[in-house]
Amino acid sequence: MKKALIVYGGWDGHDPAGVAEVFEEMLRKENFEVDLSDDLKTYEGDLKQYDLIVPHWTMGDISGDGAWNVSEAVASGVGIAGCHAGLCDAFRSNDIWQFMTGAQFVGHPGGCGTTYTVNIRRDNPDPITDGIEDFEITSEQYYLHVDPAVNVLATTRFPVADWHHSSNGVVDVPAMFTKKWGEGRVFYLSVGHDRHTFDIPQARELMRRGFLYAAR
Fold it and tell me: Which CATH architecture has domain 3-214?
């Protein structure tokens, strides 16, 4: 049986406990043993016992030892997978976390009420996206600064909401990607503002497949 660790917390507006509950249910259905923690010191423990780490912690500060411990665990072959701010806006001041995860949130023009489309890349077929159609969501549309090494599986087009960025014209920002970190696999999906995001069948299925990808 594979083993997963979910670490959740940070800003309450992202429903960390609710999303963690959804993720726990998804993983248990895939026959994972699941540990949950709401303490960042968990990252300083024995992480190489896990097949998958699922961070869902918005902002906050991770210790240097914790960040390096996660990095070394993933580099050894432990998968890491997450969504929205839980993975890529977790620790804004920690460079190694951003390097490992592959992106950093920098804004969501229009706020929570923005209706936008997640566009699956048809020119880059992948088992994670096989049979999944583009889908529309009303939520925060994440503008990310992204590692050029990531494997982009879906994008979202800006601008939808008009703001200072709009004068740059149309750009497609990654909304889902994979990457490698040493021997480990990284998966990220930029939707996931709260538990209700995963009532959208495409979002739920992509997250499920992302977990399985990262955990091999």
Answer: 3-Layer(aba) Sandwich (3.40)
